[in-house]
Specification:
Order of helices and strands: HEHHHHEHEHEEEHHHHHHE
Largest sheet: 5 strands, mixed
Structural class: alpha+beta
Strand order of the largest sheet: 1-2-6-3-7
Helix content: 25-40%
Distance between the termini: 45 Å
Number of helices: 13
Number of strands: 7
Length: 349
């Protein structure tokens, strides 16, 4: 049996901001089932196909006994909160950053007990990382659908390490501290937030500028959204838990040059320059054509929000002033007795 305190200490030593442990028993499938039934997953059909696995970690990792839920604060005082690219995507792809931290954690864990088997996940595996973060007491599910932490607000990215060992104690979930606050709900220009910690991806600007490929998005939903080429940060900027002193200044998450580009620069960017600026970042998921399309759409929306009837599609979100707060993704080097979920993000057929 492992000591929970030791696991969490090793996680902090490996570069994570928060760590908690939960029993690897199945999650309540009702919230996910209802969300899928409503069609809120938009075109992300893989979420429905992997529904059973997402609610039971033992289907993903045989012998699962415990889940070490992990969070890392990505915000630094160098991030531009109102840039056309959401802060979480302004630096190196967070999947790569988190994998590096997970490998460091595994090395420390291996030194403690080399017989431990584990599966590490960062966002692309069929596991509900937010649900595990909540169960392990890292924070609570906010009305904007993100985990809210007392230390860093919603400015965290999540990972899990599923272990084949029991621990001596599990962390307790936290009660929501959102109260009657509805700032995130009021800040969402498209009504994507359902108010119960879930969102309708069909209305979400982040989904439209990151995941959507050929779906249309009416301009009248984003005439008040401002300008974005990748992601949307409005609900997070509205959250009172996201104070400036929550910045962690982790050098691994520092923004790159792309954070300084305005909409016009994104619109006029050459493909070669795009490749240079976005190498090793999450913007590669959307691609050159989509990013330029988003920039043109945002510029048009800002210039003439009244002239929306003739538009077929659009994507956007705000861009104003800067405020405080390149390598390719490395291959997953083999780690002793640790598997990494290495599936690539699902693509539309």
């Amino acid at each position: 049996m492992l000591a929970a305190r030791t696991l969490k200490d090793l996680a902090i030593e490996s570069g994570f901001s928060l760590a908690g442990v939960a029993r690897a028993s199945p999650l309540d499938p009702a919230p996910l089932d209802d969300w899928l039934r409503r069609g809120c997953h938009a075109s992300m059909d893989w979420l429905a196909r992997t529904r059973e696995t997402r609610t039971d970690p033992s289907r993903l990792f045989s012998g699962a006994q415990s889940v070490l839920a992990l969070a890392a604060c990505y915000l630094t005082r160098s991030h531009r909160l109102d840039a056309p690219v959401a802060p979480v995507a302004q630096g190196r792809d967070y999947h790569a950053v988190m994998r590096d931290k997970l490998k460091a954690l595994r090395r420390r864990l291996n030194a403690l007990d080399a017989s431990i088997n584990a599966l590490a996940t960062v966002d692309t595996a069929p596991i509900q990382e937010k649900a595990w973060a909540a169960r392990a007491g890292l924070g609570w599910l906010g009305k904007n659908g993100l985990i809210v932490t007392a230390a860093h607000g919603t400015r965290v990215v999540l990972a899990t390490l599923i272990l084949d060992r029991e621990v001596d104690e599990f962390d307790a979930p936290l009660s929501s501290r959102c109260g009657d606050c509805r700032r995130c709900l009021d800040a969402c220009p498209t009504g994507a937030l359902l108010g119960d910690g879930r969102l309708d991806a069909r209305r979400c600007l982040a989904w439209q500028t990151i995941e959507a490929r050929d779906e249309t998005f009416p301009l009248n939903r984003l005439s008040s959204a401002g300008a974005s080429v990748f992601g949307c940060d409005l609900c997070q900027r509205a959250c009172p838990w996201n104070r400036h002193d929550h910045a962690c200044d982790d050098a691994k998450f520092l923004p790159r040059q792309l954070a300084s580009l305005d909409l016009g620069a994104w619109r006029d960017l050459s493909e070669d320059r795009f490749d240079e600026l976005t190498r090793g970042t999450a913007l590669r998921r959307a691609g050159f054509d989509a990013i330029r399309r988003h920039a043109r759409a945002a510029i048009d929306a800002n210039a003439s929000s009244q002239d929306s009837e003739s538009r077929q599609f659009i994507d956007a979100a705000p861009s104003k002033t800067a405020e405080q707060a390149g390598e390719k993704r490395p291959e997953d080097a083999p780690e002793p007795r640790t598997a990494f979920w290495r599936d690539t993000p699902p693509q539309k057929a």
